[in-house]
Design goal:
The chain is α/β, with parallel strands linked by helices and 381 residues long. The chain has three domains: 176 residues, P-loop containing nucleotide triphosphate hydrolases (Rossmann fold, 3-Layer(aba) Sandwich), CATH 3.40.50; 84 residues, Helicase, Ruva Protein, domain 3 (Orthogonal Bundle); 84 residues, Arc Repressor Mutant, subunit A, CATH 1.10.10. 43% of the residues lie in helices and 8% in strands. It is built from 17 helices and nine strands. The strands form three sheets. The protein has a five-stranded parallel β-sheet with strand order 2-3-6-1-7. A hairpin with an 8-residue loop joins strand 4 and strand 5. Helix 14 crosses helix 15 and helix 15 packs across helix 16. The longest helix has 19 residues.
Amino acid sequence: MSQPHRITSFKGTSEAAQSIRDLISRVACSNATVLITGESGTGKELVARALHDESNRAGGNFVPINCTAIPKELIESELFGHRKGAFTGAMNDRIGRFEMAHGGTIFLDEIGDLSLDMQVKLLRVLQERTVDPVGGLKPVHVDVRVVAATHCDLEAQIAAGKFREDLYYRLNVLPLKTPALRQRPDDVPELLSHFARLCAQNQAQPIAFSDDFLEALQSYAWPGNVRELSNLVDRFSTLFAGQNLNLSSVPADLLPKGLAQMQAERCAHPATALKPIAPKPAKVTSIFSSVTPSLIDEMESNPVEDIIMLAQGLENLPAEGISLKDRLAEIERDLIVQALARTEGNVSQTARLLNLQRTTLIEKLNKYDLRQGVLNVSAAA
């Protein structure tokens, strides 16, 4: 059996991703039925495979079947098998998916789309641990662990008369919910890097994303979840192999609608960058010559302003002296707060305003305890 720390198929460092991996570790070795719920594209089959790989059944087969992909008239034969001559076209005996999974795990994906008559037959299999092949004369014992998954709200389906309540309770012994990608934006950078490496073609360098593009990708809602992200990286890897992509440089028709809207908004309202202040060529004596004593007397007694004036060469040093290090830190913190206010907490734009690397800004946010209310800090920390 694999050790819990080897569960790497469900990517991410967020609390949600770690919670999923912890649950897999705890329930993998049980034979109890698992019901995985979550939106389409959130990795339900990855979780099912991890449950199998971490279990005592890892040496057996993992047999997936998508209940929506099989025509209604064939689903019973697919699940339970059939005997020769059971129906037109049944030229030979055929074992079903449950028998294929004997000693291992069967994964019933989109279980919520099973017809009511098939739900009755599946309930009997879960109760008796036997299957009745179509056209067979006796039941066949199966030793399988059942993992089911659905994107549907099965309780709502029960209320609507579309799903059997007794089957629901048979399936929902160990419930496990996969989070939507929009609920774990901190995992987006790792997922992008992972799929970029997988999709890199002809030994090209994996594609990379600029800070502004990464920020947009983390803000995007991802209605198709990780599957949508994977497809987008595959598209970019094919069209822009080895490139560092910027949000403004990617054609809008290659972006999902939500990202294209972000692109249009940012192009219409680009962030205004602060230009570095050029050093003054004048000597200190010439600066003093333009400032009268009365002007100095009229200055407000503000510590930040005082040190700024001092840095510009004005004689405003208090008689008792100052802590230069502390005053400079006050200036730095005050400027960061102003920049954050201007950008409404946007880390990338704030870094540009202050002419800092994003990682350097994040270190200073931590230093001055300014993380609260700031957008996308943890994703880059």
